[in-house]
């Protein structure tokens, strides 16, 4: 779809009517008018435009209250597509989904070592082009969302610092928009994950929700009343670089004792190696060793759970969210980590209510950031 058309649609989609249909559909025109306090002709006018755009569809007739049965309205979730991109430390994953988060196509590309900015952008563009080639009606693609690790300047869609790739100032939004003539939104991967969990995690209405992504790095995202919180300089959520031991190990950011140096996958391997049994290169290796019967390594995960719990207790004291969702590769060891996380919070949080903060593991798993990338486009459509 041409970018101009998307912007026209966006101006229509800002209406109360569209979100009323999204949140409460199937719903009749009369119900929308009554509950939104808009006049019936105004509602009908908006609905007519939304039907023409294809974002809304009519379905079976509703129940009658004595007169003619009303025609019900709902979002036409399967009519349009969004491209979601998750760019990590070693690979990029791209999906094609509809507005409901249903995934139709997937493509992955592995990054070469010592990659340049130009090579990165070529790999990214190629993966998006390959996904687009699978769409029979490319005009139905509404936009591209990109979840990028590191520090992202959201307004310009620039990756300012991608520490795992050793790259800086990558013009992701500019490059993709120029090539594909689609609206592009770029966000930090942990914040994108938060948005994905908010839209697709099915946790019910949460006025404040935080996600913590624990893998090769550690990041978080905060969603308040459906909106991501970015902070003054777009670094809100960088809890992996919250220093908890000024005499600790040096982090990739240059500081000592960051939370990331205690709970990331590589830190789990490092602590396991100190036991002197075998050499492990990743947290996944340590987890697999436990699964294969090496129970002595369980203490490494229990200690990691305590350390995660300390980090989350700090978050609870600063932000006080209603729900915290944990994701990332490290949380594959949920059964060994989560009890220690809950216990630590119960021991150290300030109040009884804070001690009982709901902390769960992501339902979306490895797809959370990719679906969060698609949600970046959904936010623009619906909000």
From TrEMBL:
Protein name: Xylose repressor
Stated family: Belongs to the ROK (NagC/XylR) family.
UniProt-listed CDD domains: ASKHA_ATPase_ROK_BsXylR-like
UniProt-listed SUPFAM superfamilies: Actin-like ATPase domain (SSF53067), Winged helix' DNA-binding domain (SSF46785)
Keyword list, A-Z: Carbohydrate metabolism, Xylose metabolism
Leader peptide range in chain numbering: none
Family annotation (Pfam families): HTH_24, ROK
The protein's role, per its UniProt record: Transcriptional repressor of xylose-utilizing enzymes.
